[in-house]
Specification:
alpha/beta, binds zinc ion, three-stranded antiparallel beta sheet, Rossmann fold, 38% helix, 7 helices
């Protein structure tokens, strides 16, 4: 007698993992927004097309590109980004890949490193007094040392995303 239990196959595991991205040189603003939403996103102006394709395959990343030829490369999981406008780009990517914020404000916008939370008392004097008075939680990038908090920039991004998502859903 044997029991049949539905085992979680590799496909299920892959689905549960948030997607990672590698982004071409023309999509710097989009890369920042994806990092802000917590997605592991490689972006560097020193990467050429061959590097981008190689990283996409080697690290199982979705390649986001404005380049039709690059998007058609064999064996590369790519999304051809159709607009020059960053909000439109974000709308396309979040809608087509059905993205929700993965773990928002968990990643450095500059270097993509996962942030570490830092005690509020440590950042006194390192951030503007108003920010220190009004914010409870701070994070630091272990690579570049940049400090993060959920300020107005963050709130604007959240609102934009909510707006884009509600528009995207309404069109379905
Ligand atoms: Zn950093």
């Amino acid at each position: 007698m044997s029991e049949i239990t539905p085992a979680a196959g590799p496909d299920d595991a892959a689905k549960a993992m948030p997607p990672c991205f590698v982004v071409d040189q023309m999509l710097g603003q989009l890369a920042k927004w994806l990092r802000l939403l917590g997605y592991d996103t490689i972006y560097s102006t020193s990467l050429d097309d061959a590097d981008l394709a190689r990283l996409a395959v080697a690290e199982n990343r979705v390649l986001l590109t404005r380049d039709t030829q690059l998007a058609r490369r064999r064996g590369v999981r790519a999304l051809l980004v159709s607009s020059d406008s960053p909000p439109e780009q974000l709308k396309q990517v979040t809608t087509e890949l059905d993205l929700l914020p993965a773990d928002a404000l968990s990643r450095c916008l500059r270097c993509n490193a996962p942030l570490q939370s830092i005690d509020r008392s440590v950042v006194c004097g390192l951030v503007p007094p108003y920010v220190w008075r009004t914010q409870e939680h701070f994070s630091v990038c272990p690579v570049c040392g940049r400090l993060y908090w959920r300020g107005t920039h963050w709130q604007r991004m959240q609102e934009t995303l909510r707006h884009l998502r509600s528009e995207g859903l309404a069109q379905r």
